[in-house]
């Protein structure tokens, strides 16, 4: 597994920390943002977990779980924002993606994180302004919103977009943008 991180900033007190995940079984994007107030965020880090060299799906899921657990331990988020499965993919892709999502959600719930799921079109609408935005448009928009010196890789940009979508939803909990599923054990 290769982790390609950005620059980390120290965590401020009294902020909600969100980990955004663009799940995958070969490449998985992650992003960490702090939310000092509803609708506002501070970029902390983003990167890509590269699982392509880790053999079969079972081995990659184990490696994904280890890497995600390390991120949880290092950054101590209190909330997970994760993309819902996109039903337009072929059945095999949806099944594999669902396994990755399930593993990540289980680990997050075991760590007592609040889990929020967002549809891909909702994420694009929250960040770019339209639900059919391209990957390149999402990359450019998160680069601007996070004031990054360079454009993040597509999976990292998607994870940042998911985290930003969650931040926007926290500000507008009763508007259509914020119609999402939240899960918490206990």
Question: Can you give keywords for this protein?
Answer:
single chain, 186 residues, alpha/beta, Nucleotidyltransferase, domain 5, seven-stranded mixed beta sheet, 24% strand, globular
Molecular structure report:
This protein is an alpha/beta fold. It has a single domain (2-180), classed as Nucleotidyltransferase, domain 5, CATH 3.30.420. It is 41% helix and 24% strand. It is built from five helices and seven strands. It has helices at residues 57-75, 91-110, 120-127, 135-145, 154-171; strands at 2-3, 16-22, 27-37, 40-50, 79-83, 114-118, 181-183. Strands 1-4-3-2-5-6-7 form a seven-stranded mixed beta sheet, sandwiched between helices. Strand 2 (16-22) and strand 3 (27-37) form a beta hairpin. It is globular, with a radius of gyration of 15 Å. The N and C termini lie far apart (33 Å).
CATH homologous superfamily descriptor: Ribonuclease H-like superfamily/Ribonuclease H
**Level-2 CATH architecture:** 2-Layer Sandwich
Q: What are the segments in which pLDDT stays under 50 over at least 5 consecutive residues?
A: 7-13
SSE topology string: EEEEHEHEHHHE
What helical percentage do the residues reach? 40-55%
Q: What proportion strand?
A: 15-25%
Number of strands: 7
Overall body shape: globular
Whole-number radius of gyration? 15 Å
- Measured between the Cα atoms of the first and last residue, the distance is 33 Å
What name is given to the CATH topology? Nucleotidyltransferase, domain 5
State the domain count.
1
């Amino acid at each position: 597994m290769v982790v390609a991180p950005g620059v980390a900033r120290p965590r401020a007190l009294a902020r909600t920390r969100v980990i955004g995940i663009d799940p995958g079984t070969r490449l998985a994007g992650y992003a960490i943002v702090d939310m000092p107030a509803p609708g506002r965020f501070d970029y902390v880090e983003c990167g890509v977990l590269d699982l392509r060299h880790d053999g079969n799906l079972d081995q990659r899921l184990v490696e994904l779980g280890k890497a995600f657990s390390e991120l949880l331990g290092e950054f101590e988020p209190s909330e997970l924002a994760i993309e819902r499965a996109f039903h337009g993919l072929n059945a095999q892709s949806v099944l594999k993606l669902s396994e990755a999502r399930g593993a990540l959600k289980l680990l997050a719930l075991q760590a007592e994180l609040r889990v929020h799921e967002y549809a891909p079109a909702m994420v694009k609408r929250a960040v770019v302004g339209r639900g059919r935005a391209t990957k390149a448009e999402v990359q450019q928009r998160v680069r601007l919103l996070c004031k990054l010196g360079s454009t993040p890789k597509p999976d990292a940009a998607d994870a940042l977009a998911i985290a930003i979508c969650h931040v926007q939803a926290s500000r507008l909990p009763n508007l259509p943008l914020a119609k999402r599923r939240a899960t918490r054990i206990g």
